[in-house]
Amino acid sequence: MRAMRVSDTDTATVLRVPGGRGRRFDRGARPRPEVRTRPDVTMIHPHIDEDLTDGVAVLQLDRPRRRNALTHSMWLALGQRIGELGQRSDVTAVVLRGRGVNFSAGADLDEVHEATRSEGAAARYCRTIVDTLQALVRCPVPTIAVVHGQVSGGGVELALATDIRLGAADTSMQLPMARLGVIPDAVTIALLNRSVGPGLSRWLLLTGRTIDAGRCLDVGLLHELATDGSVDDLLATVLAELSRASRTAMAGIKLHLDREVPADSSSAAAEMAWSFAYGDVAATVGRLRARPARGGRL
After folding, report:
1. Which residue from 15, 17, 174, 273 has the fewest beta carbons nearer than 10 Å?
2. CATH of 38-289, one of 3.90.226.10, 1.10.287.70, 3.40.50.1820, 3.40.50.9100
């Protein structure tokens, strides 16, 4: 499927396909999932909320003062919960979001620094990240990332592991691994290659360049873009479309499409863990942590 750019007019939404003509949909006819007046909101982690409404589980990162920087325990909680939700017959989709002005600025630098202190700490930390990415890939129901603001490092990895990526107009993405001395895990490499191709994967990872929402859409990091900021409307449309599809068929399609993603988390995380324990991560992150606090990220 080719990427689509979404812009709103007063009466319709136009889906613009790069290189093609836009398709116009009447707002009044747009199907929307029924919204409950009292959604079931729970806290699965001090910095992650879950809203399970009408079969759609929304997991929201809730650490806005640190730009939703991901701690080890957040990675762990996400992976465990996504695995549980995928096995529930009453869950039809899993959505990832972030509270505040950013989706996620990546991994928490303080915890990255701690993970560089020993080979065992590095292996545990990196394997947890890979386990969470694999949980998203293996989840039998559709997974959707709704991103906005800054999406960097681990935040991009989370989004890449989902089936559908929707972005707000202010979205920007960056993969600064090489600058930080990190060798990405094999799952991230596989997901990035299949999303943008090996040539762009090299460019994104080696330069660490930040690209804006339009470029993210054009290269395949985003599938649809809400150019007027109405990303909630866009999400509602996608959820309505998914609700008409066969759950069994979608699970089978995902299984076939994901065969090339490494399944063994230990081997997939091995080179990343080596870069933490023996490479340049400790020195680079140490210098960054010495700077004035900006909400650590990776």
Report:
1. 17
2. 3.90.226.10
